[in-house]
Amino acid sequence: MKIKQIICIITLCFLTYYNNLYASFQMVDQVGIIINNDMITKQDICNLINVFNKQKNQYLLINSNILNKTIIKNLFLNNISLQISKNYNIYIPDININNIINNILMNFNININIFNKELINNKINYNEYHNFIKKELIVNLIKLEIVKNTIVIFDEEVQSLKHFLYMKDKKRIQYNITIFYIPINKNSLKNDYNKKLYLTTILIHKLKNNHFILFSKKNINFYKKEDIQVKNLGWITQDFIPEKFINYLDLVNVKDIIGPIYLDSGFYLLRINNLKINNNTNKKILIKYIFFKKNNLNKKLLINKINNIRNMIIHHKVSFEKAMNLFSDENKLIQSHSRINNKWILLENFSLDIQKIINTLKINEISSIIENNNGFFLLKLINVQDLSKKDSFFEKKAKDIIFSQKFFQELNHWFFTYLSGVYINNMLNNNY
Q1: pTM for the complete prediction?
Q2: Quick count: other Cβ atoms within 10 Å of Cβ 351?
């Protein structure tokens, strides 16, 4: 599956961009945008847009006009970056490219022979792939060199974000979210804005009163299907929520309706269907246990028997390991293949009740009797690993996030400033 994804990305990027980027000017009718002495062909742009159109389910909540402009802007920026690299004779040695490709394959555990076969199946030879990686690295190197010295990160913003990340890590929140998107027709923005805002208001009212079931006969009359796009994200953590919505999720409650949020030429609504909030335990534990099956014995008698065994272990009359062999109702084969017995396991994999018991134990201490539906247990805590992230981890993550945000801000600023000195002839129609 991983190799298919990588090949898909390679095919998408290569065939729609680099294969034609330095095409000759003989086919004038295919020229899309002329940039200085270079060009982007209409075919480059159409191919890339068509690929995204074929994957509409993944981009359901992205306005197609916004997506098309983003695609063209990235092609444009990459073209300019490659021109700059030529002007300043910036290059990356082939041996470095080969090492990077080998590292990519190693990280994904992909055999080079299988990878080459997949390239051939997609009508790409290794040299073409090599050149694609080379150009992509040069583009990113140029972008970094252009803006890195203009980025300033203040200690105060790092400390603030670091604290936020630390608090977020202490609690693990899962959200069950449904996203509603009401697109606005940009060609009649003035009229359609108020119309869609009114539709959004009705939708909020129906959601709050639990009267809205999408596409039901009751609701079909108040909107057209194309007016409301819906995506149910299911259970998801913040790491996988679209970045533009994250700041709206602070202090939300179940059944909250967030919005309307005006973004991407439309209105968004977020419905919080449910929440799961757990404290991150950040521990691995190594335990041994003795299992006592419920039997015909009176419960009180069985508990007395277990307590006697526990006292024998505590007073060193028998070792815990010997007691496991003598008294456990799990046979030795089951014990040796158990997911828990004498194996490292995340504390969060246990029920909250058992987590509380384990957290009270010291190393080599024996638990009190633990009961579940099948029987009774005695636990012995052998060791604990603290998996808590260090302060330096959150500081580095905060710096990386801030750098990434400022990088794209500065890159956009440079891009529009640089355009003033670039010859551009846009031969595209208004659809782009």
Answers
A1: 0.52
A2: 10
